[in-house]
Amino acid sequence: MTADRATGPGIWQAYRLRLKRRRLLWRSFRSRHQLKSMQNRTGAIAPGDILLVMVVRNEALRLPYFLDYYRRLGVAQFLVVDNASTDETAPLLAAQPDVSLWSTKASYRAARFGLDWASWLLMRYGHGHWCLLLDADELLIYPHCDSRDLKALTGWLDRRRQPALGALMLDLYPQGPVGEGAAAPGADPLETLNWFDPGPYRALRQRPMQNLWVQGGVRERVFFPRRPRRSPTLNKLPLIRWNRRWAFVNSCHSILPPQLNLAYSGPGGIEPSGVLLHTKFLPDVTTRAAEDRARQQHFNDPQSFSGYYDAIAEQPVLWSDKSLRYEGWRQLAGLGLMSSGGW
User: Fold this and answer.
1) Rounded to whole angstroms, what are the CA distances from 21 to 14, 27, 255?
2) What is the DSSP letter of 4?
3) What is the pLDDT of residues 52-82, one digit of tens each?
4) Which segments of the chain have a pLDDT < 70?
5) DSSP of 103-137, one letter per residue?
């Protein structure tokens, strides 16, 4: 369901939001001192290039397919922060001809879950470019993505004077218990994860930022049935023509200035939108959950989510008789989970 449009901020609220945006920009600017350049290929960035910015840790399993997937869609340069990986993530990235790599051992949580670092790279290199801000377990699909690349999509968005594309994060999962089997680096994760919950999803427009809050889906059904308001936020603005004066507030769930949040109204909306296929539940999910629980870097109140990690460690079956097998973007458009918006 789509969210009703909330009333915009009043004069005093608008002033406070401008101050908040400036504080966030200053945080991001300061965070550059935490980053050490390992491989800088930003000199190759050309006008009109589509950029992808991300923060990673121990993603050697997903990265080979992820990089090839987005290259095929038209991403020209990847700007990546490696947060103290202990696997082959850093050397894998450093060897890529279109990747600029920075490293840091600083706290992911203290850097607003990596958002300060990513925002600095957007500020420094992304101004005027269409940019993707993604995690390594997110694959963006959009109407006609099998025949039209990101250049075609962003050109059409430019002609509409629409500066951002919103998306629903759609969790994919196997039919059997999570954590079973194996997935090879470079393999298509959709060969392992090919089921999803078609709903229900609910959307709420929040004040004063007019940001959307979408919840529901399989993680709420399985892990948060008694505390649905604790379930993950499922809306993002992952593709945006960046301006150095803008600031993401909470991952790319919300942004300032607030009017940018109106680019997406959730499942069932009529504006053009996409879906982020979320490949969290590959077989490594149980070991990653144990590490995340020990590091306590992924939630503002990590202790409150210890039960969530415990539940993943028990290798639950997420599949139900209402699950649908993923078939492609046309299926999701038909379900109202994305919209072509007339494209």
Assistant:
1) 10, 10, 9
2) P
3) 999 999 999 999 999 999 999 999 999 999 9
4) 1-8, 294, 296-306
5) EE-S-TTTTTTTHHHHHHHIIIIITTSEEEE--TT
